[in-house]
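Bench notes, afternoon.
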Amino acid sequence: MSIVPIVIREHLVPFFFKESEGKEVIYGNKKVKAILYSPNVSTVGRIIRLLMVKAGYPLNVANFNLFLTISDNGNGKKYQGQFYKHENGRNSYLMLPQDATDDINDLLEDMFRMSFVSYMNGCVENNGEAVVISAIDKFIDKYDLLEFGFSNDTLRRLYYREKKNCKIISRFQTKKSPKIMNYATT
């Protein structure tokens, strides 16, 4: 079984960059944010720790770090997100089998989608159905989603599909995110 670095899907980078606590710095044309996940306290950290144990790669680290980078070279933005471990005074890639990396991305994807649906529900509840298009446009702008091929139409379909279900967190019970923007999930 080969192991790979845990790289998060590009379209999730701006969302987690803006919605996570962490240390943010700017280097020239790059914004970098370091987010700590405790393997004993945070949900994401505990899941990563359990996946590492299951894969036969247990670690004894104080934290996992998610480094998010948004760079702009004038020809467009580039988004990167990768988990690291801090051992022996050094950061190195946090690596797992591909299926475990996919599981982590699916969890982050579900968090993104649930946040979108909750945001939309709040907008509609306070302002009525007439705001759906403008609320989606604001969400797209806030998280740079046009860069990844999202559109008002695709997110509107997602919203109405999820709204029909009426139970936002039920996706944790039955659903795995379907193919989304060039990232196949099975």
